[in-house]
Amino acid sequence: MAKLMLLTLLGLGLALFRDHRASYQTRLNAFREVTPVELPNCNLVKGIETGSEDLEILPNGLAFISSGLKYPGIKSFAPDKPGKILLMDLNEEAPTVLELRVTGSNFDQSSFNPHGISTFTDEDNTVYLLVVNHPDSKSTVELFKFEEEEKSLLHLKTIRHKLLPKYVYISELLAHKIHVYEKHANWTLTPLKSLDFDTLVDNISVDPVTGDLWVGCHPNGMKIFFYDSENPPGSEVIRIQDILTEEPKVTLVYAENGTVLQGSTVASVYKGKLLVGTVFHKALYCEP
Ligand SMILES: *[C@@H]1O[C@H](CO)[C@@H](O)[C@H](O)[C@H]1NC(C)=O
Ligand SMILES: *[C@@H]1O[C@H](CO)[C@@H](O)[C@H](O)[C@H]1NC(C)=O
Ligand SMILES: CC(=O)N[C@H]1CO[C@H](CO)[C@@H](O)[C@@H]1O
Q1: How far apart are CA 244 and CA 281, in angstroms?
Q2: What are the b/e assignments for 157-176, b being 16+ CB within 10 Å?
Q3: Mind telling me which SUPFAM superfamilies this protein's record contains (predicted)?
C-alpha cells in the first residue's frame, strides 16, 4: 500500500473536499480509540526516529527498512534530511540498524525520499531492491543492487514496472478493506474476495513460509492526517490466516495507543520475530 499512498492522499484530498463531514469521519475512523493488545519482548529499534514507512525481510533474515519519508500533509521529524535505507539482521541477538551507503554516479542522494520498497532475488542470488522514491515531489521507482559485503546499494536505473505474484492483495485504506485478486498468465486480475476491517489497513506483507498476511494499520486516520503530539496516532497489527479459504482467520496481534509507537504502516515476520514500521515515527521489534 505504501506505493499507493500518493493515490490514497489524492483520494483523501478529494474525499475531504467532496464528501460531507460525516462521511470523511467514517472513512478516517475519526472516533476510533485503541484497545491495547500487548506482546511480550518488544523493543523500539535503536536508531529509527524518523519513520520506517516500509520494510521487507529476506528469507535469510536480513531486513530492509525505508526511513525519512517526507510527504505533503504528513508529519516529518526531519524535514530537511534526505531519507535512507536501513539494514537490520534479524539473526542477531538484539539487532541494530545500519544505514546502507548508496553508490552509483547517476543518483542524486540529496533528494532521496524513499517510500515503498520491494526486493527481488535472481537465480544467482543477487538481491535487488526496488524503491519508490519521491525526489522533489515527483515519483520514480529506483532499482538498486544490494552489495552485502560493502553494505551498500548500487543504483542501477530508474524503472517503471514491477512483477506481480500469483495472488495480489490490495488494501483500500479509507474503505477499511483488503481485496484479493487472482493474477492470470495473461496478466489480467480477477477479484476473488474483499475483507472488511475496523481500522485503516495500510501495507500488506505476505509471510513466504505460511502465506499469512501481516498488515500494519491505522486505528484512527484523523490522528495520522492531523498530527497532534498530545493525542498521537496509535498502531495496530493484524494477521490474516487462510485468506484464500471460506473462513479467513483475522487476529489483532498488537494494538497500542501511540504512547510507544505512532502510525504503524507495515508489519513483517521472520522466524516468529515481528518487525513493525511507521510512517514517520519509530520501529518496533518483537521476539517470540
Ligand atoms: C485471461 O485469463 C483468464 C483465466 O484463464 C481468462 O478467464 C480471461 O478471459 C483471460 N483474459 C483475456 C483478456 O484474455
Ligand atoms: C495509552 O496507554 C497507556 C498504557 O496503556 C496509558 O498509560 C495512557 O494513559 C494511554 N494514553 C491515552 C491518551 O489514552
Ligand atoms: C499492498 C501493498 O502495497 N503491499 C506492499 C507492502 O510492501 C511490500 C514490501 O515493500 C510490497 O511487496 C507490497 O506490495
Answers
A1: 33
A2: eeeeeeeeeebbbbbbbbbb
A3: Calcium-dependent phosphotriesterase
Tens of pLDDT, residue by residue over 37-83, are 999 999 999 999 999 999 999 999 999 999 999 988 899 999 999 99
Q: How far is CA 109 from CA 87, 104, 133, 171, in A?
A: 17, 10, 11, 30
Question: One of 115, 134, 155, 218 is an active-site residue; which one?
Answer: 115
Task: Kindly state if the Cβ of 186 falls inside 6 Å of ligand 1.
Answer: yes
Whether the CB of 117 sits within 6 Å of ligand 3: yes
For residue range 142-197, list pLDDT tens digits in order: 999 999 999 999 999 886 544 446 788 999 999 999 999 988 776 788 899 999 99
Q: What was the pLDDT predicted at 160?
A: 53
Phi, psi (degrees; rounded to nearest 5) at 9: -70, -40
SS3 60: coil
Q: Which atom of ligand 2 is nearest to the CA of 257?
A: 1
Atom 2, ligand 3: residue with shortest CA distance:
1
Domains of the chain (ranges; CATH) run 32-287 (2.120.10.30)
Is residue 202 annotated as involved in ligand binding?
A: yes
The Cα 85–Cα 46 span in angstroms is: 15
281 is catalytic: no
DSSP string across 77-113: S-TTS--EEEEEETTSSS--EEEPEEE-TT--GGG--
Q: Is 259 in the pocket of ligand 2 (CB under 6 A)?
A: yes
Alpha helices of the chain — where are they, by DSSP H?
A: 5-18, 21-27, 221-225
258 vs 232: CA distance, rounded Å = 6
